[in-house]
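Action item from last week, closing it out:
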Amino acid sequence: SYRLVRTRLTETELLEDIRTLFFDHPAAEGKALRLCDSLGGVSFETDAHLLLRILENMTVNALEATEEGGAVRFWIEHEARGVTFCVWNRQAIPQSVRKRVFQRNVTTKEGAGRGLGTYSMKFFGEECLGGAIDFSTSETEGTVFRFRLAV
């Protein structure tokens, strides 16, 4: 079984990790990933490997759903008892998939081996890190996935 390795991580370090991860990522080809600058000094303790895995899945899903030349936004919101990591893209999730989006093997994409990204985000984020994963989606506002993590 996986043992959590908690380390202190700053917002700046995390955004740099995301920037590095997606610099040459195939899902980002022909698309813009806009990372909103952090407030800098905010830090939190978590398992950095699992957090990056969750944020990578959130970002890859948004990039894959984005048209050529489109953009995905990534930002961090601050709350009294935690931080929320947010990833937005312009596409709405089809109504037929919305209620099942976190189930294993549910996907809106073609090809075998799909449908574990949102399931693993939910599992690692909630069961392992004790956070909360949710999303909002609409034709006019696009889709935002959020991962709230208590600090």
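Closing note: The chain is about 30% helix and 30% strand.
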